């Protein structure tokens, strides 16, 4: 999967894992944002730092994460996480249509507000 192929007007690259409590707490907020704004151009790519495929897939289903997901099942050695210099999760990177990082590590209402602002441009 190529990130370039997944870009929308705005793309969230969401680093998370099934074993990450704060990630799982934030997931309902991300699901709501996706439901509300996907039709307006929002894409999300979930990058998991899991190492157990069954737990990863179970969390995707349980949390109703309907967007694209990738994982090399390498825990903290996840190459995409290394590329983005992720040192803790959850970690979110918000990219514009050209793939430029325009914000990071927003959650809750701040994440929604930034996405709405960027989609309005």
Automatic annotation (TrEMBL):
<keyword id="KW-1015">Disulfide bond</keyword>
<dbReference type="InterPro" id="IPR036249">
    <property type="entry name" value="Thioredoxin-like_sf"/>
</dbReference>
<dbReference type="GO" id="GO:0030313">
    <property type="term" value="C:cell envelope"/>
</dbReference>
<dbReference type="InterPro" id="IPR050553">
    <property type="entry name" value="Thioredoxin_ResA/DsbE_sf"/>
</dbReference>
<dbReference type="InterPro" id="IPR013766">
    <property type="entry name" value="Thioredoxin_domain"/>
</dbReference>
<dbReference type="InterPro" id="IPR017937">
    <property type="entry name" value="Thioredoxin_CS"/>
</dbReference>
<feature type="domain" description="Thioredoxin">
    <location>
        <begin position="1"/>
        <end position="121"/>
    </location>
</feature>
<dbReference type="InterPro" id="IPR012336">
    <property type="entry name" value="Thioredoxin-like_fold"/>
</dbReference>
<protein>
    <recommendedName>
        <fullName>Thioredoxin domain-containing protein</fullName>
    </recommendedName>
</protein>
<dbReference type="Pfam" id="PF13905">
    <property type="entry name" value="Thioredoxin_8"/>
</dbReference>
<dbReference type="GO" id="GO:0017004">
    <property type="term" value="P:cytochrome complex assembly"/>
</dbReference>
<keyword id="KW-0676">Redox-active center</keyword>
<keyword id="KW-0201">Cytochrome c-type biogenesis</keyword>
């Amino acid at each position: 999967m190529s990130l370039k192929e997944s870009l929308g007007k705005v793309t969230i690259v969401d680093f998370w894992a099934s074993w990450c409590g704060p990630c799982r707490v934030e997931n309902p907020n991300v699901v709501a944002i996706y439901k509300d704004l996907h039709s307006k151009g929002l894409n999300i790519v979930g990058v998991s730092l899991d190492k157990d495929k069954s737990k990863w897939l179970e969390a995707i289903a349980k949390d109703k994460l309907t967007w694209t997901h990738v994982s090399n099942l390498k825990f903290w050695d996840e190459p995409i996480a290394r590329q983005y210099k992720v040192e803790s999760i959850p970690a979110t990177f918000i990219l514009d249509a050209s793939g430029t990082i325009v914000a990071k590590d927003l959650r809750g209402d701040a994440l929604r507000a930034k996405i709405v602002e960027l989609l309005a441009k």
